[in-house]
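In response to a reviewer's request, we include the raw inputs and outputs for one of the modeled complexes. The two entities were modeled together in a single run.
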Amino acid sequence: MAYSDKVIDHYENPRNVGSFDKSEEGVGTGMVGAPACGDVMKLQIRVGKDGLIEDARFKTYGCGSAIASSSLVTEWVKGKTLDEAETIKNTQIAEELALPPVKIHCSILAEDAIKAAIADYRKRHGELEPGKKAVNE
Amino acid sequence: MKLPIYLDYSATTPVDPRVAEKMIPYLSAHFGNPASRSHSFGWKAEEAVEEARAHVAALVNCDPKEIVWTSGATESINLAVKGAAEFYKTKGKHLITMTVEHKATLDTMRELERRGFEVTYLNPRDDGLLDLAQLEAAIRPDTILVSIMYVNNEIGTIQDIPAIGALCRSKGVLFHVDSAQATGKCPIDLGSLKVDLMSFSAHKTYGPKGVGALYVRRKPRVRLEAQIHGGGHERGFRSGTLATHQIVGMGEAYRIAKLEMATENERIRALRDKLLAGVRRIEEVFVNGDLERRVPHNLNVSFNFVEGESLIMAVKDIAVSSGSACTSASLEPSYVLRALGRSDELAHSSIRFTLGRFTTEDEIDYAVEHIRVKVAKLREMSPLWEMYKDGVDLNSVQWAAH
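The model returned the following structure tokens for the whole complex.
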């Protein structure tokens, strides 16, 4: 399959591979996909006290496009607010990586992964008003 | 060592230089039409075609008159299956094949279903082999043909063709065998096999692409409805001017196969076993298909928790193929591995290595190390591997299928 240089670059030099401790303060974890479908993405964000995503990590089981899509979104979300990160669309990912049509589902999965990570963060930290300190901090 | 290393000999093989050398004079010097009876140009070409026919017949022990030239195994299978179905349809309209056949057979069967025939698709056992009792139970009074592949293209398993042939003959059912992957790998003796039709390809056995042959038994005689008309070449079975240089290439390739296959297969088997031992040192590796009843050059393994296409991208110094969905447009993982009862996960994680005449020990050593490093790298990146290492049972996880 002829992949774009950007896919190859992210595939060969993936950014932000790894894991945060799920229970760590400020961390949100999203896991989407299924092994039977051939791709599973785990995407994690760490949100700072200023409400900005200060770091992100991913692990992906899947084809080259799936790995590249998740690597790319970890770069994109850094420094964004949750609301900003939530606006990332699969079409932007597909366009940036020049994904072939049969690989569009990889970009959809990456969008789902970031949304799932944000939802998880909000669920775990949602009770807190912005600016207030968490009880266990 | 030249990179990338070619380990995809079941996709196609390079033309052996000895074969190429033999073909070249038939492009320009001896360009005659083998059907031209009125001059020496034609006679020269016809002589070469008949010599090649004898070489093909010799490899599989049949009468040269039983060999019909075609454009390749796909055309041979089409001619055998459609040709027999159309000729014998007054006797019955039921055919039997297997779910793990090549698409050349499966798609031909689908076309026959469209034309009003009925087809039974048998699943293999978990080792990839056909259950004879299941075949016997599937044969009906109106069954006219059974079509089974000699060697599976993905997992290299060898079907029990003598036993299947004996069963079909005892039931009065025609038996077609797709031998595209078998020539030069398994000894084939049509003198003793109860096979009525057999399809061959040149390019899987170090011959050129674009040429193949169909064996059509004369005693007892098998009749076929021709699929290509226009001149009545090949005793009416297949019209069209013969591609002399291609045919010469196939003949030479099969002549060499007959001479060298015994020693060549032992050498390749040793290399394959070395490759197997090497990849088996990696954790969570599963061999797909039976290891004993398998051609010596095939190894199909699943690297659990690593997706096949990304592994193929990673091992870019070796040329292999995958049963992963992502290497095809369909997004479905290998139907062959699924038919064996392999989980979708393992089917997505499979790699097929096929070795051949020009594979060296250095190449295998390099490949093993290359795979070991890349699998480790991809597993570091795999959430499934992380969960497995944390002791999570992946089957207990609720996945959101998409």
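As requested, we also summarize the result in words. DSSP finds twelve helices and 13 strands in chain B. The longest helix of chain B spans residues 244-280.
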